[in-house]
Specification:
By secondary structure, the chain is α+β, with helices and mostly antiparallel strands. About 40% of the residues lie in helices and about 20% in strands. Strands 1-5-4-3-2-6-9-8-7 form a nine-stranded mixed sheet, sandwiched between helices. The protein is globular, with a radius of gyration of 18 Å. The two termini are about 25 Å apart. The N terminus is likely disordered.
Length: about 260
């Protein structure tokens, strides 16, 4: 699909959302989460429950800018912007946004360590490290059934995700959802770090030491109680710091 519609006037909230989603693309590329021009990151347009942002297909994530983002509605029609729309972006992301309105931001990557873990006979993220505990009871797993080339496949993935924020696509990659770009990227970043640690530990050939369930539960409670520092949200502080990193070397992401 090739779109050629021009964007109309944007609110401050829309401009901020575009900048945040562009930042997700740039940061994912910087941390090695991208794969050529494939995979997609989307976000609902502020003030709209049936319209979302999507980068035009053909751009590297390292070159996505806020102004590049297309706006699509839930019929798959481009209502603003110019560029190509790749089919799986519609079939996966549109389906997840439509069936899970709480998933305002949806990030799909083939980042290496999470993908490697999903290739194992047992793909579970074990409660063997602090970062992993942050995902306790928040990961769903779904078997691979080929390319997502129709809405039925996207709907299958959305149903598999259920009430979790993370879907491990076995033999494929990951899907991370959240209520904001900051929250979604936080989950994506720490998921890859947790998977990296587990893959590295397993590479020694030695047995993982699993944290006792009582300690896991206590740590989960600590995570929830410690989500703010000085009244400020940890996730937002992290995302702001990451955007400052971009501001110093590739500030055009916000243009």
């Amino acid at each position: 699909m090739n779109a050629s519609r021009e964007p109309v006037g944007r609110s401050d909230a829309e401009r901020r959302a575009r900048i945040d989603l562009a930042a997700c693309h740039r940061l994912a590329a910087r941390f090695g989460f991208s794969e050529g021009i494939d995979n997609h990151m989307t976000m609902l347009v502020p003030g709209h429950s049936e319209r979302f942002y999507l980068a035009p297909f053909g751009l590297l994530w390292s070159e996505v800018k806020a102004s590049d983002l297309l706006e699509l509605d839930f019929s798959g029609t481009v209502v603003a912007g110019r560029g190509l729309v790749e089919d799986t972006a519609l079939y996966i992301h549109l389906s997840v946004h439509r069936l899970m309105p709480q998933a305002r931001c949806v990030l799909h990557t083939h980042m290496p360590h999470a993908t490697a873990l999903g290739m194992l006979e047992d793909p579970r993220l074990d409660m063997a490290a602090q970062n992993a505990i942050g995902f306790h009871d928040d990961i769903a797993y779904v078997d691979y059934q080929g390319l997502a080339l129709d809405y039925a496949e996207g709907e299958r993935l959305a149903r598999a995700l259920g009430s979790k924020s993370v879907l491990m696509l076995r033999n494929h990659g990951v899907l991370v959802t959240a209520g904001s770009a900051a929250q979604a990227f936080e989950r994506l970043y720490f998921l890859e770090r947790a998977c990296q640690a587990q893959v590295l530990a397993l590479s020694t050939g030695r047995k993982l030491r699993i944290v006792a369930e009582a300690v896991v539960q206590a740590t989960v409670a600590q995570f929830r109680a410690g989500d703010k520092v000085g009244g400020q949200d940890r996730t937002e502080l992290h995302f702001a710091a990451l955007k400052r990193l971009l501001d110093r070397s590739e500030a055009d992401y916000a243009s």
